[in-house]
Amino acid sequence: MRKLLLITTALLGFALPDPAGAAPIGAWVASAIFGAAAAGSFAYGVVAGIVSMAASAGLSMVVAKLRQQKPRQEAVRGELARPTSLPAYRYVYGKTWAPGTPVGWKVRGKLLYICYLLNSRPSAGPITVYLDKRAVQKSGNEHDFTAGGGAWGTNDVFFSDEVEIAGRETYVRYWIGTGSQTAPPADIVSGSGGHFSANDAWRGRTVLWAIMHCGGDEARQQRWPATPPELNVDGNWSLVYDPRDGETRFSRNQSLIILDALRRNPVRPYPDTFLRIDTFSWGADVAEELVGVKAGGTIQRYRCDGILTFTDGTEIEDQLQPLLDAGASRLVRVGGRLALIPTVFRLSAKTITEVTTGQPLNLTRWKSSDDLYTEAVARFPAPDRAYESAETPVYVIPGAQAADGGVAKRLTFDLDFVTDHRQAQRICKIMGWRSRMQRQVSGELFPDCFDLVAGSICRVNLGSPFGAWDGKYEVESIAPAAGINDDESITIRLPAVLTETSDEITSWDPTTEERDMLQGDFVASTGRVQPPPKPSIVTGTAAARASGNTTVPGVLSAWTESASASARGYEWEWRGPSVEALGLTVNAWQSGGTLSRSAGDEDGVFVALVPWPETGQNYRIRVRTVGTFGTSDWIYSDTITATGPAVVVQRPPAPEANAVSSSRINIVATQADDQRARAILIYGSDVDNPLVATLLTTRQAGASVSVSHADTGLAAATTRYYYARARDEWGNLSDFSPGGSATTNP
Q1: pTM listed for this prediction
Q2: What is the pLDDT of residues 356-390, one digit of tens each?
Q3: What residues make up the domain containing 637?
Q4: What is the rounded CA–CA span in Å between residue 710 and residue 652?
């Protein structure tokens, strides 16, 4: 390694780096230092002693960022459906269902006058209205606010030849303002008895006003299962700015939506001077690239659909993380300017063959096993399931489990702004492979790496003895600085951290990697209240219960709240293995009890535990909502096989092996000194490697108990190797014991 290179020229004599060198991030650092030195050049550096050149760092380089901050989209939708006089500030992006927040209502006789907030900004449209998840077929013009205008429901559940609203035979009449309205609908103002005034326009917001007739007593609970009725509106939402042509229009482009949220958020909007707009244009091009799908045809690479709510007290960059996750993209900051790095294949901009002696060279080869995953699953809101959560098929990282050993380790994360399982599956692969990038290089680079910024791709080739660290890397952070050397020269310093990357992260073959998913068959319930979302169910370590020195296996289920505002609690039941009673096979549902609404945790999650499950048997949970107007339909969990907790079992000592003839070897294996051990497994092999050994026998044996076994039918003068493993009552296996060997007589 050479000494630091001395630059014997004035600071302003540097040439600008080529923007293409960082593909396409390039001349940021140079422009930052030139801007800082505008006080007249080199003398400024002499006074300062050392000049910082706009440190460049990624804001979200690791998979752990997925397990954080924002509530899941299901919880957001449920919360936004609750009546309130202080509605959450929300931006609805892309094409999705937007829940309506009741923000004002008045009951007069059998008529409900109500206003719902949909979007805290103007919207594009067109849109479709759903009441209690049932599509409203309509006549009329929902944007006509004049007397007698508006739209009205005409399908069976909302049509009536017995009641009228403003001269129309219907149970519901509604108007939609997409942001340009200057007053409420005339019929809302005149009919509400002064509750709504001409000033209640919600200017610049997207809102829906409605008049609903409760109807006769017999069918009322079927027509209006929730109070107030649950509103969802499907359509094209926010209008976003596209810097590539200067136009503002509806778009599902992930990069443009991130740029819009940064520029227009109510928490801390970014002026354009603090954004690298060109990188968002690059990201927009990437997002619009067409990617093949298994069924044929193409879809855009990264689309973004969902509801973004804003809260105080949290960095806006963290609040936007779900938008970034929709494309597995990342933000970087250079000299206070924010930029986007989309996830797409990029060529290396630089090959690093040397580092300076300005700081110690730190080389990391392996990450903690806690941060390595062998498979990945994403949860996403599925349009065919009324935007309830669905899971992608499991993406198994080829060779990962064999490389790590042990059981599979799953990365599960939420993609709240992805509504297409094919896009979600691609991101599963990206996140899974990204988690396995272990190598890291930290050191000081030479000034010829001046073009690099956080997010740049480079190659490392340091030569012997650092060959294990050769390969493709992404710049995680780089902090250029200029220090004085003497009266006529300065020293450029480039401390940097590089993290391993791979072309496999962004490769995708839909014919072999995309998995089929069953389409949802959602049909809106006309019950009195809506059921909760599908309950999850787990077993093993997460559900096990400890009491003193005894561990009991468990089956645990959890679910979130029903979207119905009239929900008061939840009744749950469980079903286990079949039993024989009076000569008949019985597999009945057993009552688990009722949980009140207050029994949920602060996130609205309810937990139920199956009593005394048997390992190896199948169990299932079902839940229904108990509301003011009765109960909902049952909603069922998946079926799960109960297992015990995963624990570490000590390994036995090496077996003793003695040849007694030319065809027989006697083996004595001693159980591990572990009170949890219940059985010992003996393996044999022709080579000294337990991974290729064959199981010979399994014997019941407690701690430190010895058992014997004869390995017969062997050839003369044959050397055999033997190993043992301990197993506990839950089926957990220890590591292989050390080997023992013997050779049959000649």
Answers
A1: 0.66
A2: 888 899 999 888 888 899 999 999 999 988 888 89
A3: 536-641
A4: 19
